[in-house]
Amino acid sequence: MNLARHCDLCENKMTSLEKGITCKLTNKKPNFNNTCSKITLDKKFQEKLEIANLELEIMRRNQKSAHLTFYGTIIIGFLLILLGYFFLTGIYIACSYGT
Length: 99
Known about the structure:
Layout: H1 3-7, E1 13-16, E2 20-23, H2 43-98
Antiparallel strand pairs: 1-2
């Protein structure tokens, strides 16, 4: 598990060039297996959550837009084929009666 990603959300994270990521509570490097029992989720977590939700909403809108464009193009193409068929059929019928 990447401890740095887990600690990025915690308010107790402290970084330095010498030691790297350390915990403000223990003044040691993160040393846990799955989750830290002393994690404090507050401002950083809220900011990351808001950004993630915003990105998700943007992706959903882009997906809807792509679907509308795809199906709209199919419908327009089908209508063009039908109009071409009726137009050519009308010309054929008009030419048949004209001769």
